[in-house]
Amino acid sequence: MSNKNKKLNKTSLGRRELLKSLATVPVFGVFLIALWQKMRMDALKKSNVLSNLIQEKTAPAVVSDLSNTKHLNLGIIGYGGRGHHLIRGVGFATPDWTEKAAENARKNKLDKALVTFMSQQDLNCSIVGVCDLFDVRAEEGIQASKNEIRPGSKSIQTATRYRHYKELLANDEIDAVIIATPDHWHARIAIDAAKAGKHVYCEKGLTRTFDEAIKVYDTIKETGIVFQLGHQNRQVEANEKAKQIIDQGLLGPINLVELTTNRNSPWGAWVWDIHPEGNARTIDWDTFQEPSPNKIPFGEEALKRFFRWRMWFDYGTGLSGDLFSHDFDALNQMMELGIPKYASSTGGIYFYKDGRDVPDVWHATLEYPEKDLTVLYSATLSSNNARGNRIMGHDATMMMGGHAGTGSVHGFIVTADSESTQYKDRLEQGIINTKYPIYTYSPGSKQIDGVTSATSRYFANRGLLYTYREGKRVDATHLHVKDWLDSIRSGGQPKCNIEMALHEAVSCHMATESYLTGRRIEWDPVNRKLI
Amino acid sequence: MTYSRLRLISLTVLRVLVGWHLLYEGISKLINPYWSSAAYLLDSKWLLSGVAETIVANPTLLSISDNVNMWGLTLVGALLLLGLFARYAAVAGAVLVLLYYFFAPPFFGLEYSKPAEGSYLIVNKNLIEACVLWVLYTFPTSHIIGLDRFFQVTNKSEDNYE
Predict the structure, then answer these.
(1) pLDDT for position A111
(2) Cβ–Cβ below 8 Å for A407 and B39
(3) What domain range is B139 assigned to?
(4) Per the structure, how many domains does chain B have?
(5) Parallel, antiparallel, or unpaired: how do β-strands A342-348 and A396-400 relate?
(6) Per the domain annotation, does B156 fall within a domain?
(7) Coil vs helix vs strand at A254
């Protein structure tokens, strides 16, 4: 081989060498081009989904921290299941609860109940009075008031037990009361508390009857105390985000809203445990049934009614005051609906033939002719087929909970309508596809909670258990109580004030009244009467 | 090791395809701000479900798991595709993919909330891909076709195939 040939060979060998080394680099290049094209296409799609159309506002302001200003003394009237939760929201749990929560956290690492409780802000309060007609619960309230395991400093004072709420209200040391009794007691206690100058946090539904609601409203207005109704959904970030989207008209004209409740367990249908220690000596039955229209002597039936009171119209309004009230208030928060012109409702006791007189399947329609809107509520206590809530606009539908399945608690999705006017061009260009959401809100999608039971999931999906502040999970009930306490200290108005409470109460009572009378109910706003 | 031309090309194509797949799996997770390994871990069954729960319950461990997945897949994929340190990449990839298999093995009696995209009995695509990565480790090609060729000190000009 000549020198020249050798040289040529060497060069070609070198070139072949290089080619072999770099042979797959062009594939990498192709990959990058494909990736770039895909990302560009995704970005184009994204720029046309709602997230960019929404004028982003910052998350709902965390109420300025007023907890260190004035120490407040609270009384709790009705320390049952809900009362326990509310007082935990203030920062006091029973030793039983903290022990069990610690044990649950040990067993199930995803159970964050104790961590969430302990990381709550200290609201600078004491529980100084407990009133409950059942001795066991009153004693639990006292234990909670002095439990050392709590967020913040140790408790300053221990609660005193009062057998009657009037005795509790007579204590001048008490600044404010939380009312978590059955509904038939709400009006009397709220009115007397307001007259005694105590600020009031009252559980929903506001009252058992329409007349009571008007009386409570007038008293709160006259006395000027700070009143909060227990709809903790008011603190939920998702609802604020939903309101922004609706306010900007991104759903288009909204003529129909569908709210639903699906539950399928005895617990969810208010067949709650009868406490083994509940008897004639430990329960003040006569006082319990004092405001109810029908009275019965103490016995087995009375025990059922005491512990499962939601099953009878004597003490509450069933689905209306318990669950419809939540969904209504959340919608009122998002759409500022107010009281409807007409309401009608139907239903029956179709599954739980256990002596209850409130329906277990129940549907209500609220008509707002001036807003061109119908609100439809449909509930069943014998199917878990969660349908979710839907706000149906001409241009897009917002779906929350149920099968919306945004993969995390209380998110929502917005999907464009195929016949939308607002998105017509973008639909035609294929930039918006009705098969996929144009907006997805899923807070805490990187966070995991051990919310497991079906009933817990029901509430979590509606944002009634937890919400998020700066990505951190907080108990909505805690925020709602804090909102009330902050308003007391600052002299402001809490989010679910008496005006909102009146909307809730009148709307729910119109629907209940329609079920009981079998006719359509009309609201007369001038004379404040139901026709 | 010596390969016929056909064998070399087949093995290289296999390496490039697996590399491509893992690379995009990694990058798609990197560019999705909502991606987390938590959902997969929460659905874990069998021997490693306790480990999975521990990881999910601990934000630090979960963050490590997320990053190992996102960056691990991306790196392994790119290295296989380019043929750079490809044998190490193949082993790392095999371990990673085998972990996916053992966190959620398709054994009978184990029910998963997320449906599989195919029908699997004991053997699934993760197991096969892990096995393919092992084959790529045992039959390396990057020293012939790939950037690893630059690191071949001896016999550079000789093709290592018949």
Answers:
(1) 81
(2) yes
(3) 5-149
(4) 1
(5) unpaired
(6) no
(7) strand
Kindly report, residue by residue over A79-98, the tens digit of the pLDDT: 999 999 999 999 999 999 99
Tokens of A135: 């001795």
The pLDDT of residue A168: 97
Question: What is the C-alpha to C-alpha distance for residues A317 and A323, in angstroms, rounded to an integer?
Answer: 10
- Position A9 scores a pLDDT of 57
> Residue ranges of the alpha helices (H) in A248-393?
285-289, 300-307, 319, 325-335
Q: What per-residue confidence (pLDDT) applies to A67?
A: 56
Which tokens sit at A490?
């600052």
Distance (Å, whole) CA A133 – CA A165: 10
CB contact under 8 A, A23 and B53: no
Chain B residues with beta carbon closer than 8 angstroms to that of A20: 144-145, 149
Concatenated DSSP letters for A277-293? T-STTTB-HHHHHTTSS
Beta bridge pairs of residue A343: A366, A521
Q: Per-residue pLDDT for A64 more than 70?
A: no
Asked whether residue B56 is assigned to any structural domain, the reply reads yes
Alpha-carbon gap: B135 to the closest alpha carbon of chain A (Å):
19
Q: How far apart are alpha carbons B6 and B81 in whole angstroms?
A: 19
Q: Looking at beta carbons, which residues of chain A come within 8 Å of B81? A: 24, 27-28, 31
B106 occurs within a structural domain: yes
Strands in A439-441's sheet, in edge-to-edge order, are A439-441, A412-416, A396-400, A389-393, A254-262, A373-380, A361-368, A342-348, A521-524, A529-530
All residues at 6 or more sequence positions from A362 whose CB lies less than 8 Å from its CB, including other chains: A318, A319, A320, A324, A345, A346, A347, A379, A515
The strands making up A176-179's β-sheet, listed across from edge to edge, are A160-162, A125-131, A72-77, A176-179, A199-202, A227-229
Q: How many helices (H) and strands (E) does chain A have?
A: 19, 18
Q: Which residue on chain B is closest to A14 by alpha carbon? A: B157
Residue of B nearest to A105 (CA): B57
Q: Check A110 against B83: CB less than 8 A apart.
A: no
- Contact assignment for A22 to B12 by CB distance below 8 Å: no
The amino acid present at A82, given as its one-letter code, is R
Token couple for A170: 């007579």
| Tokens coding A77 | 């009237």
> For residue B145, is it within any domain?
yes
- Cis amide linkage into residue A80, ω under 30° from 0: no
Tell me the two tokens of residue A6.
Answer: 């050798």
**Domains, chain A, ordered by start:** 72-181 (3.40.50.720), 234-272+308-530 (3.30.360.10)
- Based on the number of CB atoms within 10 Å of its own CB, is A196 exposed (0-12), middle (13-18) or buried (19 or more)? middle
CA distance A512 to chain B (A): 40
Q: Which of B20, B23, B145 sits opposite A23 (nearest CB)?
A: B145
